[in-house]
Write a structure and sequence with these properties.
273 residues; alpha/beta; TIM Barrel; eight-stranded parallel β-barrel; 12 helices; 14% strand; globular
Length: 273
């Protein structure tokens, strides 16, 4: 397969073809997604909360993100690899953000950096672009922005608020600002079917959505673990996903335990087909 490029994603937008990306945090998931033919493998800083069981999403460090991103890079041959900053480098200022981005490029081989809350840091988008690091800029409704706008925000059982129509002008302004600052892609969270299409039409770069997105955008980004039901909660409640890997793993390990306890040979030993 031909390696995905940023210009190729821009061409997809022009042709009306949807862009698909997944969030992954390990070699095998990245390699599987790459074989599927996804356009982007995104290494999210939510790895601490969604994979490692952290209570505080701000605990993840730059060193940890480098290790995780290296693993994903090794598993990815054709898809673009993007990485999130952990909390800190962007908030500390432009110089800190540029240093962190260069480290991601040199030590982990990323193709671009995703900046969360980029609408508040357009100067960082421009600085990273000048340093030769492509930027995927996130904006839209988050718990923090909802509070500042006086809007309700829920994030329980998969329910999230979406932007009301009166926010269209503000979101268009932010999208165009980020494009002008140098962003090559946008991540529009909680866009909704009213505001989302208007923002898509207002910019020349692809607008991709994660949570709160939909088919009205240029593409979607999905947590790989959520897509396949790789979550302990899936053992007690069937997830709204394409599989229930948690149940498959549980049943396989239970069968393996049964073989061990019954003094039978176990499957999957090294060197055995």
């Amino acid at each position: 397969m031909t390696a995905v490029t940023i210009p190729a994603l821009h061409d997809k937008k022009k042709r009306g073809e949807k862009i698909f990306g997944v969030v992954a945090w390990d070699y095998h998931m990245a390699a599987i997604a790459d074989r599927v033919g996804v356009d982007i493998v995104s290494v999210g800083d939510t790895v601490g909360k969604n994979l490692w069981g952290h209570d505080n999403p701000l605990e993840v460090t730059m060193d940890e993100m480098i290790v995780v991103t290296r693993a994903v890079r090794r598993g990815t041959k054709t898809a673009l690899v993007s990485a999130d900053f952990p909390y800190g480098p962007l908030q500390e200022g432009v110089d800190s953000a540029v240093r962190a981005a260069i480290r991601f490029v040199k030590e982990a081989g990323v193709d671009m950096i995703k900046l969360d809350g980029a609408a508040d840091y357009p100067e960082a988008v421009t600085a990273l672009t000048r340093a030769g690091v492509p930027v995927w800029a996130q904006f839209g409704l988050t718990p923090q922005t909802a509070l500042s706008m006086g809007l309700p925000y829920e994030n329980q059982a998969g329910s999230v608020a979406q932007l009301p129509a009166e926010m269209t002008a503000r979101m268009i302004e932010e999208a165009q600002m980020l494009e002008a600052a140098g962003a090559v892609l946008l991540d529009f969270t909680n866009s909704g079917p009213v505001v989302g299409p208007e923002v898509v039409k207002s910019v020349g770069i692809p607008v991709i959505g994660g949570f709160g997105g939909g088919p009205w955008l240029d593409g979607r980004i999905r947590l790989s673990t959520a897509a396949v039901g790789y979550n302990v909660a899936a053992l007690t409640k069937d997830p709204d996903s394409y599989a229930n890997i948690a149940r498959t793993i549980h049943d396989a390990l239970a069968e393996c335990a049964g073989d061990v306890r019954a003094a039978r040979q176990i499957k999957g030993q090294p060197g055995r087909s």
